[in-house]
Design goal:
four-stranded mixed sheet; alpha/beta; Aspartate Aminotransferase, domain 1; four-stranded parallel sheet; 2 domains; Aspartate Aminotransferase, domain 2; globular; 13 helices; binds pyridoxal-5'-phosphate; 41% helix; 379 residues
């Protein structure tokens, strides 16, 4: 027994390390240091100091003139507070895709509204306006907003959603949590995550981008105790501000972004090339060529996600079903209303997150490709 354990330890020590599903890289201490020095010099640590103001201005500079950016402690809170600021009738339905991370639904519930889970387009993995316009009249009457989600950072069809909003008058908020790279239009209010797992990570954080100045002001007020121009709470609110330290990391992240974006795209291209001989592995349209994201989610043959994940795991290659079996399957949301979710259910059984990171190396890329080839061959 003792010998076996020693052998096991030796194997663990000398065997190949696992390929992790993600390896977040935030700005180094060296890159953040000059900003920390500015905090020391100013003696201003939170409550909309100079670094946060600069960070928000630089984020807003990525959008057309007139766009307001409001930073928030995380994207879930940003979604919640924006829904609250939209003054929607309490208890109304917010139509959202079932194929999303649970945060989308949590935000809806926290804002006093009810998720209505709709199916996604099987190719783009995203909600289409037809999923809302096609609802029965009795459901449509109760819909107070729509919350489309950018799937893993892919650009959502914002033109189609704008047309939907203009034609129906139903407010649309975009959950663009992973779409820092592609989101450059805030004609519809949109929320981006700055979580450590995202391409521009600051640990925890998020922001709302909108051209609606009144909405931005309300969301800002909700992040700071309901204060606006005075220390009297005008509305029931919370504290969801970002500190100067978070802004320091964000500014260092923005400094590095052009180079980091290139590194994400380069790593993605290497992975795509290594999988060229495996047509059963389907990338999202434009993944790693038109847009950069921090995860690699691929479509496999129907029902293959589970068996392939197990086979990869045995070969030391980690995977993750980032959105599980779909948001509607989480115990917290099983009681929520929904339509026919056949495509979401199919995606849940066929999509897996492969290992991906900004510094994914050639050996890891080869291990992923080999493991995937063997796993698919053994199906
Ligand atoms: C689609 C989606 N919405 C919202 C969130 C929540 O973001 P945060 O972790 O910043 O709260 C995530 C996080 O990954 C997400 O994937």
């Amino acid at each position: 027994m003792a010998v076996n354990q020693a052998l096991l330890r030796e194997a663990q020590a000398t065997g190949p390390t696992r390929v992790p599903v993600a390896r977040p890289r935030l700005p180094s201490a060296e890159a953040v240091f000059p900003y920390l020095q500015k905090i020391d010099d100013a003696g201003w640590y939170s409550n909309f100091g100079p670094l946060l103001t600069e960070f928000e201005a630089r984020l807003a500079g990525r959008f057309p003139a007139g766009t307001e950016v409001v930073t928030v402690t995380n994207a879930t809170q940003a979604l919640t507070l924006t829904l609250m600021a939209m003054d929607l009738p309490v208890g109304g339905y917010v139509v959202m895709p079932a194929w999303t991370f649970v945060a989308t639904a949590h935000a809806v519930v926290q804002a006093g509204l009810r998720p209505w889970f709709a199916d996604v387009d099987p190719d783009s993995w995203m909600l289409r306006p037809e999923a809302v316009t096609g609802l029965t009249a009795d459901v449509r009457e109760q819909v107070v907003a729509v919350l489309p989600v950018s799937a893993f950072g892919a650009p959502a069809d914002l033109a189609a959603w704008r047309a939907f909003r203009d034609e129906t008058g139903v407010p649309v908020l975009v959950d663009a949590a992973a779409a820092f790279d592609t989101l450059d239009d805030a004609a519809l209010p949109a929320v981006v995550s700055l979580h450590a797992t995202k391409v521009l990570g600051i640990g925890e954080g998020g922001f709302l981008a909108t051209r609606d100045a009144a909405l931005a002001l309300k969301v800002r007020q909700l992040t700071t105790f309901g204060f606006q121009d005075s220390r009297e709470s005008q509305v029931a609110a919370t504290n969801a501000k970002l500190s100067e330290y978070a802004a320091a990391v964000g500014l260092a992240g923005l400094d590095a972004w052009p180079a980091d974006r290139f590194r994400f795209l380069r790593a993605a291209q290497h992975l795509r090339i290594s999988l060229i001989g495996q047509p059963e592995v389907r990338f999202q349209d434009g993944w790693g060529s038109d847009w950069a994201t921090s995860v690699c989610t691929v479509g496999l043959p129907e029902g293959a996600a589970g068996p392939v994940a197990e086979a990869l795991h045995r070969q030391g290659v980690d995977t993750r079903q980032w959105w599980g079996l779909g948001c509607h399957m989480s115990p917290a949301f099983t009681g929520c209303a929904r339509g026919d979710l056949r495509y979401t259910d199919r995606l849940a059984g066929s999509v897996i997150g492969l290992p991906f990171s900004i510094d994914l190396d050639a050996a890891e890329t080869a291990r992923i490709a080999n493991a995937l080839q063997q796993a698919l061959a053994s199906l």
